[in-house]
Write a structure and sequence with these properties.
Order of helices and strands: EHEEHEEEEEHEEEHH
Number of strands: 11
Number of domains: 2
Radius of gyration: 17 Å
Largest sheet: 6 strands, mixed
Structural class: alpha+beta
Length: 197
């Protein structure tokens, strides 16, 4: 069996790798255990397909800024929330395992988070939504090409919307602008100032 090694390079960019062939759940769990010690590497599983993704600095900066600004919004709007970050969602029965970049329960804790966010720097793929659908996560935001695509679960299918149904008053244009600001302090100041208007 080959060993997967990821070089520790702080400038590494996000990359995706699909392992060839079909892999059953036990094979996936074996591979997952082998790479647990590797930092900056995510693994996901869907219907026998194993995907590995390296996490670069750009990915981590954007993910962190999304969480920071979104939590400012929750505080400002007095929305109760439980942040659960990239906690693994997996089920052998559903043949799926994955980690969102950020995820939140809104209000009280339920079986699964209400909102999940995935950051895609080098590639975006709506097929990823199938993983979230199997856990009935109400809303998924995919970040790609410096903007969000918003998907809401309706009648067991994700529909793409221009505005969040969970957070209908959130100004996504402002959020996207602030996420991309080079000064993170200025980004937070601008975002919170606009929220108070």
């Amino acid at each position: 069996m080959q060993t997967v090694t990821i070089a520790k390079n702080t400038a590494i960019q996000e990359q995706h790798f699909i392992l060839p062939g079909y892999h059953n759940w036990q094979q996936f769990k074996t591979i997952q255990a082998l790479i647990e010690t590797q930092t900056g590497l995510k693994i996901s599983y869907l219907d026998g397909v194993i995907e590995l993704m390296t996490l670069g600095e750009t990915h981590e900066t954007i993910k962190t800024m999304i969480g920071c600004l979104l939590e400012q919004y929750f505080f400002n709007q007095e929305i109760e929330f439980i942040p659960v970050g990239s906690a693994t969602r997996e089920s052998e029965e559903k043949e799926v395992s994955f980690e969102p970049d950020e995820s939140y329960y809104l209000g009280e804790k339920k079986d699964h988070p209400d909102l999940a966010i995935e950051v895609n720097i080098t590639s975006g793929n709506v097929k990823k939504l199938e993983k979230y659908k199997r856990f009935q996560i109400k809303e998924v935001w995919l970040w790609h090409n410096n903007k969000f695509s918003i998907y809401h679960l309706t009648n067991n299918e994700y529909e793409q919307l221009s505005q969040s149904k969970l957070l209908p008053d959130l100004d996504f244009q402002l959020l996207e602008t602030c996420i991309l600001m080079s000064s993170k302090i200025q980004a937070i100041k601008t975002f919170t100032k606009e929220l108070k208007i």
